[in-house]
Design a protein that fits this description.
The protein is of the alpha/beta class. The chain has four domains: 86-368, Aconitase, domain 3 (2-Layer Sandwich); 372-613, Aconitase, domain 3 (2-Layer Sandwich), CATH 3.30.499; 662-681 and 731-894, Aconitase, domain 4; 682-722, no CATH class. The chain contains 32 helices and 34 strands. The chain has a seven-stranded mixed barrel with strand order 26-29-30-31-34-33-32. It has a five-stranded parallel β-sheet with strand order 6-5-4-9-10, with helices on both faces. Strands 14-13-12-15 form a four-stranded parallel β-sheet.
Length: 895
């Protein structure tokens, strides 16, 4: 409950149409000498407003408000609470979140409480966008309908469960399949920028269960991705507890040169910010360069905050924000009141606004940005377009790792005939070209540039290469509307870019199968073939198991590479193809001018498009036809292979046991640097011979019905079997293997990670994982932590963690430890055969040092110092309770 008038800040401001709105004035804190608003980064001002408005003396105290108000660029950081206005979910991460809420209801009953007390306390939106796969590619005119039909058939159990949630949980809204990508739907429809609740105005803010929740920062809405576990806690009324952040100011100056896209700019920003080192920090953009950036360009930059490692990439609300709200169909009255509120609060940026003070800064002149891609295995590894041909040639023979493929020099010119076809495949051939992902499909400039390039290519008689699987997956139905109005849909279709679905497809591994003859040729020649996608993620094994070289690029470049069919091309020197007269065509000949793109945007997009397409966004005939029961408890089905009651709360008591040490832990995996949540968490398709496949077969599910790991996140039996089973993960204690293998130390036998882990669990042996730097980079996948826990891992010891995954581990009761600077598993001589004793006790304190003992096979001991990465007192409490949800449940039961 908010205090009536914290810090004497409750006041009013004039609304645009007359009347007054209630505001909790930040200026009241300045008048009391608690802050200097003009010096605070805008993102910190939003945190301050949330604390002031939600002040209740319990969850948010006087001290919390004063701490945020007194933020200094380089001060020692202390814990603060943040209560977001709402939560947003996508269905892959959203299903397990709702599963856990449903399981909490069962647990509440077992603790003697009322199940209906377990409800979202804030507005929750779930957009079903991650389930559609490119089973039918963009060469088929009916791909959209066929893929949607397959999606519903595959996911009937999941959708029935989500429909139950929509009916039986308060404050929960679901957007059906086929409506768009969560972040674009958020940008175009859900986000309010300013909320009005009972006359009280406040900034829109959120957390989401997808890393790229940060896209909404481009609209001036503060939010970021958290693990599903942490999001569930917010859904149940808990603040996000965090250390007050450092804020890095990224100053943008100048303008992009002609022919340079927002994607190129974003890849450059990812590169420089990752190099700068902004992990677990806020990034806030400022400078006169903002005035030349359309809102969609800002959203593209903000989207990729996880790729540069930041918590968020924030753009303050300004005139561009208001223009976008009008363009996207928000009412004039709402836009006017957003402006009135933000100006009244000192949250509105203009060209005359003084620069805030930041922890550190860097500057990018937009005129210096070059056309580029990023790859072959990480989004921060930018490559100038002009250097792509030489770059790929070098990466082909470079040592196997994050930059190289390790192909022997005498094997680089292989040509493998494709059975039944009149072409061969070689290293570097592009087999997937996908306009996909929230990053770019929300940006009309790059989407229309792709359409115009297609029109110009078709006019020249160009076509896509037959070995390429093309696809177009717009982020909302509005994209199709403006393609149709601009007359570009037919040209895209002629190049194989028919719409395959409105959802997040190739970028998350839902690229679907390649033709069997293509896969056979790749396997036979051990070919390093490529994918080019307009996405944000290209980690190993993510796009497709048989595609080792994946590059992020702008939508028009996706079309260009589909026409060229190879990464072995320098577009400055080599023709992209031949016209109908046999004359060479260069990329420059078909690349649309900036003036042409701007003219088409102006002529093809209007607010009525957005209003029409979002008027029925929550309605879909097949969704409406799903029948579910009205019941406080979900009727779990033992025979379901999609939705199972998770075991996290089994045996839970009203009072947690004290924290005790971990003794005799064995190593399940020893991993190197940059291990991502894609390596850890199950994703994409999976083989029949692996543990997950064998489990489903034992339940009578044929291989054709496996679906993807992501679609089965509501079944812990499947997910734990796929944890640490990515085909590209390399466990150093299972030498010579790639994939989900480990050495079971009691026998010395190499076997599946799951099988070995279950033997350890049965024997009562705790487990640890050893890692290098940036452990847990990538998506905010809660199953990377949940699966770790269910395999019996009690602690993860690394050189450093990425923010979200560390938080998720704590949220599941797994202890994160960091080696001291300059040390690691290799530096200490560990080969993974050791056992570990971790003497953590009930009086553990945040970030304390802890001496861990490793006992080698010969009985000798190595004592080394670690930092306990329980960063705040609240995280200590979560760990003590066994996780966030256990903490919330016990509090609800007591209440």
């Amino acid at each position: 409950m908010t205090s009536a008038n914290p810090f004497d800040s409750r006041s009013s401001f004039e609304l645009s149409g007359g009347g007054q709105g209630v505001v909790f004035r930040l200026q009241a804190l300045e008048e009391q000498g608690l802050t200097k608003l003009a010096k605070l980064p805008f993102s910190i001002r939003v945190l301050l407003e949330a604390a002031l408005r939600n002040h209740d003396g319990f969850l948010v105290t006087d001290a919390d408000v004063k701490t945020i108000a007194g933020w200094q660029p380089t001060a020692e950081r202390v814990e603060i609470p943040f209560i977001p206005a709402r939560v947003i979910l996508q269905d892959f991460t959203g299903v397990p979140a709702v599963v856990d809420i449903a399981a909490c209801r069962n647990a509440m009953v077992e603790l003697g409480g009322d199940a209906t007390k377990v409800n979202p306390a804030v507005n929750v939106d779930l957009v079903i966008d991650h389930s559609v796969q490119v089973d039918v590619d963009g060469r088929s005119t009916d791909a959209l309908l066929r893929n949607l039909d397959i999606e519903y058939k595959r996911n009937a159990e999941r959708y029935e469960f989500l429909k139950w949630g929509q009916r039986n949980l308060d404050n929960f809204r679901a957007v059906p399949p086929g409506r768009g990508i969560v972040h674009q739907v958020n940008l175009e429809w859900i986000a309010q920028v300013a909320f009005n609740r009972d006359g009280v105005y406040y900034p829109d803010s959120l957390v989401g269960t997808d890393s790229h929740t940060t896209m909404i920062n481009g609209l001036g809405v503060l939010g970021w991705g958290v693990g599903g576990i942490e999001a569930e806690a917010v859904m149940l009324g808990q603040p996000v507890y965090m250390l007050a952040p450092d804020v890095i100011g990224c100053k943008l100056t100048g303008k992009l040169r002609p022919g340079v896209t927002a994607t190129d700019m974003t890849l450059r920003i990812v590169e420089i910010l990752r190099k700068k080192g902004v992990v677990e920090k806020f990034v806030e953009f400022y400078g006169d360069g903002l005035d030349s950036l359309a809102l969609a360009d800002r959203a593209t930059i903000a989207n990729m905050a996880p790729e540069y490692g930041a918590t968020c990439g924030f753009f303050p609300v300004d005139a561009q924000t208001l223009d976008y709200l009008r363009l996207s169909g928000r009412s004039d009255a709402h836009v006017a009141n957003v402006e009135a509120y933000y100006r009244a609060q000192g949250l509105f940026r203009t060209a005359q606004t003084p620069d805030p003070e930041y922890t550190d800064t860097l500057v990018l002149d937009l005129a210096d940005v070059e056309p580029a891609l990023a790859g072959p295995k990480r989004p921060q590894d930018r490559v100038d377009l002009s250097a792509m041909k030489s770059h790929f040639a070098e990466s082909l023979t470079a040592k196997l790792g994050i930059h190289g493929h390790g192909v022997p020099a005498d094997k680089t010119n292989l040509e493998v005939p494709v059975i039944g076809k009149d072409f061969s495949l070689s290293h570097g051939d592009v087999v997937i070209a996908a306009i996909t992902s929230c990053t770019n499909t929300s940006n009309p400039a790059v989407m229309l540039a792709a359409g115009l390039l297609a029109r110009n290519a078709v006019a020249k008689g160009l076509t896509t290469q037959p070995w390429v699987k093309p696809s177009l997956a717009p982020g909302s139905r509005v994209v199709t509307e403006y393609y149709e109005k601009a007359g570009l849909s037919d040209d895209l279709a002629k190049l194989g870019f028919n719409t395959v679905g409105y959802g997040c497809t190739t970028c998350i591994g839902n690229s679907g199968p390649l033709p069997t003859e293509i896969e056979a040729a790749i396997t036979e020649g051990k070919l390093v073939v490529g994918s080019v996608l307009s996405g944000n993620r290209n980690f190993e094994g993510r796009v497709h198991n048989n595609v080792k070289a994946s590059y992020l690029a702008s939508p028009p470049l996706v079309v260009a590479y589909a026409i060229a069919g190879t990464l072995n091309i320098n577009f400055d020197e080599d023709p992209i193809g031949k016209d109908s007269a046999g004359k060479d065509v260069m990329l420059a000949d078909i690349w649309p001018s900036d003036e042409e793109v701007r003219a088409v945007i102006a002529a093809s997009i209007d607010p009525a498009m957005f209003q029409a397409k979002y008027a029925d966004v929550t309605e879909e005939p097949r969704w409406n036809a799903i029948e579910v029961a009205d019941s406080a408890l979900y009727p779990w089905r033992d025979d379901s292979t999609y939705i199972q009651q998770p075991p996290f709360f089994q045996g839970m008591t009203a009072t947690p046991p004290p924290i005790s040490g971990i003794s005799g832990a064995r190593v399940l995996l020893k991993l190197g640097d940059s291990v991502t949540t894609d390596h850890i968490s199950p994703a994409g398709s999976f083989p029949a011979e692996g543990p997950a496949g064998q489990y489903l077969i034992s339940k009578g599910v044929p291989k054709a019905g496996f679906n993807s790991f992501g679609s089965r996140r509501g079944n812990h039996e499947v997910m734990m079997r796929g944890t640490f089973a990515n085909v590209r993960i390399r466990n150093q204690i299972a030498a010579g293997t790639e994939g989900g293998y480990t050495t079971y130390w009691p026998s010395g036998k190499v076997e599946f990670v799951y099988d070995a882990a279950m033997k350890y669990v049965e024997a009562g042996t705790p487990l640890v994982v050893l890692g290098g730097t940036q452990y847990g980079t990538g998506s905010s996948r809660d199953w990377a932590a949940k699966g770790t826990l269910l395999l019996g891992v009690k602690a993860v010891i690394t050189k450093s963690f990425e923010r979200i995954h560390r938080s998720n581990l704590v949220g599941m009761g797994v202890l994160p430890l960091c080696f001291k600077e300059g040390e690691g598993a290799d530096e200490l001589g560990f080969d993974g055969s050791e056992s570990f004793d971790i003497p953590i006790t009930n009086d553990v304190s945040p970030l304390q040092t802890l001496d861990v003992t490793a006992t080698k096979a010969d009985g000798s001991k190595v004592v080394f110092t670690t930092t306990v990465r329980l960063d705040t007192p609240v995280e200590i409490d979560y760990y003590r309770n066994g996780g966030i949800l256990h903490t919330v449940l016990r509090n609800l039961a007591k209440g």
